[in-house]
Amino acid sequence: MITLTSDFGSPYPAAMKGVIRRHTDAELIDVAHDLPRGDPRAAAFWLRFVLPEFPPAVHCAVVDPGVGTDRAALVVRAGAHVVVAPDNGLAMPPARALAAEESDVEAWTVAVDEPASETFHGRDVFAPTAARVRTALDDADESTGDGRVTPSAVADALAAMDDLSPASDPVDVRFPEPSVERDGDDGAGDSTGDVVAVDGEVLAIDRFGNVITNVPGELIRGRDWIRVDGDLTPVAETFGAVDPGERLVTVGSHGYVECDVNDGRGDGAFDLRPGDSVRLVPDSVSL
Amino acid sequence: MITLTSDFGSPYPAAMKGVIRRHTDAELIDVAHDLPRGDPRAAAFWLRFVLPEFPPAVHCAVVDPGVGTDRAALVVRAGAHVVVAPDNGLAMPPARALAAEESDVEAWTVAVDEPASETFHGRDVFAPTAARVRTALDDADESTGDGRVTPSAVADALAAMDDLSPASDPVDVRFPEPSVERDGDDGAGDSTGDVVAVDGEVLAIDRFGNVITNVPGELIRGRDWIRVDGDLTPVAETFGAVDPGERLVTVGSHGYVECDVNDGRGDGAFDLRPGDSVRLVPDSVSL
Amino acid sequence: MITLTSDFGSPYPAAMKGVIRRHTDAELIDVAHDLPRGDPRAAAFWLRFVLPEFPPAVHCAVVDPGVGTDRAALVVRAGAHVVVAPDNGLAMPPARALAAEESDVEAWTVAVDEPASETFHGRDVFAPTAARVRTALDDADESTGDGRVTPSAVADALAAMDDLSPASDPVDVRFPEPSVERDGDDGAGDSTGDVVAVDGEVLAIDRFGNVITNVPGELIRGRDWIRVDGDLTPVAETFGAVDPGERLVTVGSHGYVECDVNDGRGDGAFDLRPGDSVRLVPDSVSL
C-alpha cells in the first residue's frame, strides 16, 4: 500500500499515480490533495492524525514550498511504516506518531538525479522514490514470506537501497505545547491543582471552519463553561448540544480542544487563524 | 467491496480507510465526501441514485448530525447489499432502491462499545462495523464457494454476528410525492387526463446548481413549454438546446424534472433551494 | 486499469464506477472530476499532460457539453492505450501524446443503443463502453499470456468488437502554436537568432491560478526578465525565488511558460484567462 498526500488539487496527483503504476501494482490510497497550500506544518498536523490509523505502509506526502531549491528528499522509517517527503519538517511529527518510540524513527536522504522538472517533484522525485521503496519492501516481504514486514526488515531493506544515505539533521516541526496555569502554581509549574487558565495556539482549521488548538482535551474535562479569549462559551460533547449558529468548545477526534460553531464556522466566529494564540479560562458560572 | 460516503471533506475519510485496512483488504470505492453537511435527507437522495448502479456491496455512509448523541448505529440489509449508517433515515431510501422488494430490507442495531471519540464515529464506529460486516460476508462467500453472496446468505451472515440485534423502528426518510392536477379531476385524483399542474418540491441541488425536483419526468413528456412558478420556460432534452445563460426544464439522469441553466446555475436563476415548493404548469404557447 | 476523468464533481463518477464493477474488476484510478465544466479543450490539455505518465490503460474521459445531441461516442487507440470519450475533440491531443507516432492513433465510433438517459452518458454510454473495451483487452491479454498487451493486439481486439466501426473524421482539437519573432528575421521565420518576442495564448489556468501558456519553456531559457504584455517580470525556476505575493514567469512541469504569483493567483495578477493572447518580450534590463 502507498498512501498519497499533497496540496496539488487535481489532476496532478494522477500523474504521480501513473508514474507509480509503471513500477508497482501496490494499492494506492489518497489521504488528501487539498491540504493548505505550501504549509508543511499543517500537513504534519493532519498526517500525524490520520496515518496512525493505517497498518504499515509507504506514505508519499508532498507539500513542498521549497520545490526546485536544494532542500533534500527524505525517506523516513517509523517502525514498519515509511514516509517519503521533502525535507521541510512535514514528515517528522507523523513519523513519531507512527513509531512505537522515538528511537524507532530513522531518516534517509535520497540521492536525486536531475529531475525532469523544477516544479513537479511529486511526479519526478517523490512518486518514483515511493514506488522503489514499496518494491524494496515487497521484495523483502517475499523473501521472508510472512506477509507482514517487521520494522527491522524495513530498516534492512532501506539500508540496502543504493540511493539512500543517512540524513544527519532532517528539518523537524515541533508543535508548541500550551502553557498551563494551575491553582497553587508557585512558578515552578509543577502544581497538580485545578486548571486556572491555558494559553494555547491554533494548530489548524478544518474544512468546516473548526478551530483546532494545541490544548489537550483532558485539561477541560468536567468543565461546563470556558472563556475563549474572554468570551463565555459552553463546553459540549456534541455539536447538537447547542442551537445551530451557536458557538461551543468541544474535544475533537484528535483529542484537542476545538472552538466550533454548530452548523457554522468557528474560525469566523472566534476570529482565529492557524498560529494565533488563544487563551482558555474555565469559568464556574452557572446560568 | 466497501463504498464510502460522507460529508467529511478531507482528510477524515482516509482515517476510515486506514481503520478498514486493519481488518480487510476489500476494495474501497468513494461515492462522495462532499455531500451537504449534516443533511441525511440529501445523502439519502444521492445514495438512492448512485448505489443501485453497484453490484452487491457493503456501503458505509456517514452523514451524522447526531454524532455523540444516543442515536443508534444501523446495519441495513437490502437484498445482497448492506448499508452501514447512523440511524437518522439516510439508509432507508437507498436500501429500498437496492432491494428487489421492500420486504427484502431488514435493519439491525449495532451494539457499540464506548467509542474512542464523541465526534468521529465514522472512524470509531462505522468504519470498523463495515469492515466486520465485509469480513463476515467474505467468510460466508468462501464457505459457499460461489463467488457471489445471495441475499439469504447475507441475511444469515448478519444474523450470526454477535453485536447485531434486530432494529425495531429505524428512522426513515420518505421523500414527498408531488401533487398532480389533471384535466377532468373530480377531486378524487384518479383522472387520467392531461396534466394541468404539478405542485412539487425541490429534493436537492447538485454541484452545477441544477435544481432537482420530486416530479417524475413522465409527467412533462411531450411538453415544449412549462411555467415554473409562473415563468415560461422551454423544455429540452439537452442543455445545448438553449443558449448559454438561458433557463430550461429537463429530465435528469435520475428521472426527475430539473430546473437548470445552460452553463449557469439553476438554483440562482429560479431562486429555489432544497425543500422549497415549486409549481409546474404545462403551457401550450407556441412562440 | 481504467482511468476516469470528468467535469461531473460528485457523486456522479461513483455511478460510473458501479456500472463498471458490474462488468469488470479492473483497477479504477481517478484522474480528475473537477475539470472546467463543459470545456473539452481544457480536458484535452490536462489529459495530454497526465495520461502519458501511465502504463498502457483504458482511459474513460467525459467532458461532454453535447450530451444528448447526436455527437458520436469514440474509442481511440493510441499505441497500447485506449481513450473512450465523446467525439468533441478532447480525445485526440492526449491520444497523439500517448502514441509513439501519429500513425499509431486510430479512432472508432461506438454503435450506441438508446441510452437510459439523455443527460448522463458517462454512466449510460462511456462507462459500459470502457468496461467492455477493458474486458476485450484483458481477454486478448489472457490469450497471449504475456501480461502486457501490444499495440497490435489492442488493435486486433478493438477490430473484433461488434459495436465499433472506423471513425472517418473524428473532431479534433489542435492547440495553437505561438508566433516567434527572432533577431535577423527576414519575414520567412527561419531565423535562428535570439528570441525578440513571442505572441502566445493562454491554454489553461490551474487550481492555483497559474496561467499556463502555449509558449515552450526553451524559448525563454537563460532569460532573467521578461515583459508580459509590457510588464517587467522576473524569470525564476522556483516560486520561492520571489517574495510571497510577487509575480514571476516560470516553466511548468508540462514544459510551458507560466505566469504565476508566489502564494497568490497569476490569473488575477496578470488579468489572463484561457484563450487570451499574451505577448512575451525578453528584456535585458539589469536592476
UniProtKB/TrEMBL annotation, chains A, B, C:
Region ranges (Disordered): 164-193
Pfam families on file: SAM_HAT_C (PF20257), SAM_HAT_N (PF01887)
Transcription found in the keyword field: no
Domain S-adenosyl-l-methionine hydroxide adenosyltransferase N-terminal: 2-135
Start-end of Basic and acidic residues biased regions: 171-182
Limits of the S-adenosyl-l-methionine hydroxide adenosyltransferase C-terminal domain: 200-279
Keywords: S-adenosyl-L-methionine
Name the UniProt record assigns to this protein: NAD operon protein
Naturally occurring in which organism (per UniProt): Halorubrum hochstenium ATCC 700873
